[in-house]
C-alpha cells in the first residue's frame, strides 16, 4: 500500500489520562454508579496491549469511550496527542460477534469498512483484495456469510476493521464466541497480522493466556469501580510458544491476580481496594490451559 494511505507511526500513540466514567444509578436514591476511575494508560505507537479482568471491571466501557461512542466522561483520551472527538476512521473495532451483513459477500462485507473512505473505486477494490489475502481468505471473496465457518467470519471482521488502515484497532473479545481450537488458530493469525501491519492494537479479553500470548503489555483491571491494578510487560519474542517456561511463568503471574486472597507485594503502591478470590467468577475468565 502506498505511504499516502498509511499514517506515520508517531501519530498512533494512544494516551488515556485520569479517565473516569459514571452512569446514573438505577437505585431509587437517584445517585451515580462509578464504572471507571483514574485510568492512566499509555499505548505506544505500533504496540499490542491486552486488557484483562473479571466481568464488571469496565473493560468494554473503556473501549466504548476510546471508540468515541460516548463523550460523557472525566479525563482525556488522546490519539497522536490530539483529543478524540466522536467516532472516526482512525479507530477501527472488531467485536466478539462478527456482525457480518448476511446479504453481502465476504468481499462486500470487508468493503463496508471503506464506505466513507476518500478512495476511488479501483483503490477500494485493491484494498479489499489486499486484506482478503492478509487474513487468508483468497478464494472466498464471493462466499456468503452462511457459507463460511465462524472462524472465517471473524477473519472477515478483522479484515473489515483493518481495511481502512486505522491508527488504532480495538478488539472487544474477538474470539470469545469461538471453540478453543479455532480461537487458538485465530490468535496465531492475529499475531501474524499485527507483526506484518504494526498497527496499534488494544485487546479486551477475559482469557489470561490470550492476553499474555498476544500482548506486549498486559493491563490487569479490577472492579468496583474499574481501575488498573497493575501493568505487566511481556518481553517474549514472536512467534510465541505457549509451552515456553517463561510464557507459563508470566501467565501464572497474571493469573495470580485473580486467585490471590492476600495482596502480593508490589514495586508500586497498590490501587485502592483489592481483588479477592471471592469476587471473581472463575468460569468468566475463560482460562485456557
UniProtKB/TrEMBL annotation:
<comment type="similarity">
    <text>Belongs to the ABC transporter superfamily.</text>
</comment>
<dbReference type="InterPro" id="IPR050166">
    <property type="entry name" value="ABC_transporter_ATP-bind"/>
</dbReference>
<dbReference type="GO" id="GO:0016887">
    <property type="term" value="F:ATP hydrolysis activity"/>
</dbReference>
<dbReference type="InterPro" id="IPR017871">
    <property type="entry name" value="ABC_transporter-like_CS"/>
</dbReference>
<keyword id="KW-0472">Membrane</keyword>
<dbReference type="Pfam" id="PF00005">
    <property type="entry name" value="ABC_tran"/>
</dbReference>
<keyword id="KW-0547">Nucleotide-binding</keyword>
<dbReference type="GO" id="GO:0005524">
    <property type="term" value="F:ATP binding"/>
</dbReference>
<feature type="domain" description="ABC transporter">
    <location>
        <begin position="14"/>
        <end position="248"/>
    </location>
</feature>
<dbReference type="InterPro" id="IPR003439">
    <property type="entry name" value="ABC_transporter-like_ATP-bd"/>
</dbReference>
<protein>
    <submittedName>
        <fullName>ABC transporter ATP-binding protein</fullName>
    </submittedName>
</protein>
<dbReference type="InterPro" id="IPR003593">
    <property type="entry name" value="AAA+_ATPase"/>
</dbReference>
<keyword id="KW-0813">Transport</keyword>
<dbReference type="InterPro" id="IPR027417">
    <property type="entry name" value="P-loop_NTPase"/>
</dbReference>
<keyword id="KW-0067">ATP-binding</keyword>
<keyword id="KW-1003">Cell membrane</keyword>
Amino acid at each position: 500500500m502506498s505511504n499516502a494511505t498509511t499514517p506515520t507511526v508517531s501519530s498512533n500513540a494512544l494516551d488515556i489520562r485520569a479517565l473516569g466514567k459514571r452512569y446514573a444509578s438505577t437505585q431509587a436514591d437517584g445517585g451515580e454508579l462509578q464504572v471507571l476511575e483514574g485510568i492512566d494508560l499509555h499505548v505506544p505507537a505500533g504496540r499490542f496491549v491486552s486488557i484483562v479482568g473479571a466481568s464488571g471491571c469496565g473493560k468494554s466501557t473503556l473501549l466504548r469511550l476510546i471508540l468515541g461512542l460516548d463523550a460523557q466522561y472525566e479525563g482525556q483520551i488522546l490519539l497522536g496527542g490530539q483529543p478524540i472527538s466522536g467516532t472516526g476512521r482512525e479507530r477501527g473495532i472488531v467485536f466478539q460477534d462478527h456482525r457480518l451483513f448476511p446479504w453481502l459477500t465476504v468481499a462486500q462485507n470487508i468493503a463496508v469498512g471503506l464506505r466513507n473512505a476518500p478512495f476511488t473505486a479501483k483503490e477500494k477494490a485493491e484494498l479489499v483484495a489486499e486484506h482478503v489475502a492478509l487474513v487468508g481468505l483468497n478464494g472466498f471473496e464471493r462466499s456468503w456469510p452462511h457459507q463460511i465457518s465462524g472462524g472465517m467470519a471473524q477473519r472477515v471482521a478483522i479484515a473489515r476493521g483493518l481495511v481502512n488502515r486505522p491508527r488504532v484497532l480495538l478488539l472487544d473479545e474477538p474470539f470469545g464466541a469461538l471453540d478453543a481450537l479455532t480461537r487458538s488458530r485465530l490468535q496465531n493469525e492475529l499475531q501474524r497480522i499485527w507483526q506484518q501491519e504494526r498497527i496499534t492494537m488494544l485487546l479486551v479479553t477475559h482469557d489470561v493466556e490470550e492476553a499474555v500470548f498476544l500482548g506486549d503489555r498486559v493491563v490487569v483491571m479490577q472492579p468496583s469501580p474499574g481501575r488498573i491494578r497493575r501493568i505487566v510487560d511481556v518481553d517474549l519474542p514472536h512467534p510465541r510458544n505457549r509451552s515456553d517456561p517463561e510464557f507459563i511463568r508470566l501467565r501464572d503471574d497474571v493469573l495470580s491476580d485473580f486467585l490471590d486472597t492476600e495482596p502480593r507485594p508490589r514495586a508500586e503502591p497498590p490501587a485502592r481496594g483489592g481483588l479477592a478470590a471471592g469476587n471473581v467468577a472463575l468460569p468468566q475468565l475463560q482460562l485456557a490451559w
